[in-house]
# Entry
Amino acid sequence: MPSPTTDPQRRPATLGELRAAGWASRTVKEELRSNLLARLADDRPIVSGIVGYDESVLPAIENAIVAGQDLVLLGERGQAKTRLARLLVGLLDEAIPVVRGGELNDDPTAPISPSGKAIVDEHGDATPIDWLPRDRRYSEKLATPDITIADLIGEVDPIRVAEGRYLSDELTLHYGLIPRSNRGIFAINELPDLAERIQVGLLNILEERDVQIRGFTVRLPLDLFVVASANPEDYTSRGRIITPLKDRLGSQVRTHYPRTLEHELAIVRQEKQRFVGAEDEPVIAVPAFMEELLAELTHLARRSPEISQRSGVSVRVTVANAEVLEAAALRRAIRLGESVAAPRVSDLGAVVASTVGKIELESVGDDAPEDRIVERLITKALFATFGRVVDIDELDDVVLAFDDGLIIETGERVPSREYVRWMAEIPGLHDAVRRLGTFDVTDGAEEPAVVASAVEFLLEGLHLSRRVNKDRSGAGMVYRR
# Structure
């Protein structure tokens, strides 16, 4: 049963008012299950901002929640495991009542902490209550080898002992993160990194609810929904999830990287940084074929035998590459005094630095340094993208112009207006640029910076297709017969 009112000004302020309003307590899993089913009935998504999981990961998570099971999200780095856990908070009620002064988000009708019980026993129906919003009902811990039982479960508080309490007094206990997450979602990231002796301490928390702290046997009927994340066992050698704990966690859901270029690009557009520039700062325009090229680069890296697939190649590679490529285009536009910045093929060298730090090679030798491997992947990505978006037979007139002695020198110092001039003068190039979708659909006008990007893309594609030769010059590249 949901909260008696959603109006913060009219919510009950005491236990008596709460009972009079007809409020009935629900467990966290009952909340999640009920609110999930309501969303499904209304055909609303259970989470927002997650791309590519609609037919794979999300149905498995929905099944686990409806079944009342805790979750283990298993997948390589950068697969939105932590984000998924955090977004599940949206399935909780807007707010729940708690005993004011209670230590463990105590339910006013059934407190579990000694302080919460004492307050209810003393005040009865006059017990003051607070309303805990959903965003404060999520706790998260990154598992590291130095975590102790005291951090997660609790410890005797020496300050309280020094104040005069006896060690036998349960009020001397200071509860850890898990008990303080009562009536909420507790997420623990990279669970295999947690020492096995600490994992053993979680068994009773998840099942029997008996917690022993320094000889105290305290029965805490904790109300939790637990989400753990882990990398596949063949990736991490730092540890494992012990079998009894794995048995108690319920459903194991395998996450994955985006399976299509469209999903990859949707995530990049959602995640990349955006800055509010000065009024006179050039506007950044990224052509679709350059975006697709970056996504193709990441997908090729995920299939490359030279790159370790055990550690994975996350979407963060594509995001970082998009940000760096735009930065390179912006720098050039400012130097050339242009009002629009569009990434060109000649800017692709910038993404080497943003890629090598996010991948791990199977083996590093003098004959295959990281930079060279990434450069080869960039070339392959460009050729694959060119083959998808351009019909090379439609560039025969451009090839004939090179056969007749045409020479073009490109580079970051060449202004965009030069590319526009070449487009107008070289037979067939204008139509090829238009087919790439670089013109304004409303008035048919071309943006010089985007035209420059398209021309370099077409020239490099012709070179990779062995229709045009390319030589490196001091300032850039020279394309000739």
